[in-house]
Amino acid sequence: MRILSCVAAASSALFLSACAQTATVAPAPAPAQSVAEIRQPVTILIGIDGFRPDYLDRGVTPVLSALAQGGVRATMRASFPTKTFPNFYTLVTGKRPDRHGIVGNRFEDPARPGERFTMQSEQPYWWDQGEPVWHAAEKAGVQSAVMFWPGSGIELGGTYPHDWQAFGMAVNGRQRVDAIVDWLRRPAATRPKLLGLYFDTVDTAGHRYGPDAPETNAAVAEVDALVGRLTRELAGLGQPANLVFVADHGMAATDQSRRIQLDTIAAPTDFRTIEEGPYAAIEPQPGREAALAAALLKPHPQMECWRRADIPARLHYGRNPRVASFLCLAQIGWTITTRPAAEPLRPGGAHGWDPAAPEMAALFIAHGPAFRAGTTLPAFDNIHVAPLLRQLAGVPQAADADGDPTVLAPALNR
User: Fold this and answer.
1) 84 has catalytic annotation
2) Which residues pair with 364 in a beta bridge?
3) Chain centroid, CA 247 distance in Å
4) What average pLDDT is seen over the chain?
5) Which helix (H) or strand (E) holds 77?
6) Which domains, and CATH codes, for the chain?
């Protein structure tokens, strides 16, 4: 078994080299502790929004690449829709978006007419179709602490994570890392055993500049350096950790020329859109469903549309009543819009397309004493991460999850 440490002799030479390359900040002194205290491993889930697995191959991630080489690496398939909130909730519930109820970044529920879910919605009603792993942990007596994970600050069944912080753009990456470290400085009796950490800057750069831009590479390098800071701080504490790095989705380039003008395909008076972009979630106006169906359901270049009940089974989407009545899905790189044709689309990148597209693939790395070194797994669906986290944290498996704990069992030292 290996302990994650930049100074431990059991660490790989490559990881030691990576730590040396990113050692820009000296670790804070470890708290006074008994010589006899041996820290037990904790589990830290680290979500890096919009991080494609091939970003590891750009030569700007010495720490993450070393962790991947010395641990477990795989290409992970996002769930549909390949959007942030649906997938970050899948990663911690083990349910697909169609089952945990966060079916988009924006959606409606026929049981709540006149309301709409957005990424600022915090009412438990929207979130209670799934149980995040930290809520299950608290009920099992396993203390948790979460920094910015989407949905982590929602009260479900009277339970929160033991510690959590609401998302704020003003809190920079270093402060987020330091919050994790500060939680781990606590005495053993009050120290969290399951932690979550979220970074948004790679996704922000990918949207603004595109996945292949130098600015996106710089954001990737910045997050890599923050991971280096985290590993150095863990080493200074003598804290072994099972680190699980995940992304919610990938990123694909967009441009003005790949535009599908929805209001020229169907009459604008026949529908309203709830979401637009790589896919469109569409509701008919009263009495106009037949006219809308006639316009949408015929063949279209660069786009395919379905009624909710007819969405292809491979997308695992459409059983939840929160899914819109019609779904149109564009080919990779194309954007569905009702913006005026004279209004240019913002160049850069986007996500939301078919999970089978390579550009939508997501990062997965696992490293720590629980994991087999030098392991590359076959591609897998992201529903299987939550069962892995439950196993690592000693939390009972969910009886109603879509994920299967046996899928990632080959990653573990057993």
Assistant:
1) yes
2) 74, 246
3) 4
4) 92
5) strand 72-77
6) 13-26+38-253+356-411 (3.40.720.10), 256-346 (3.30.1360.180)
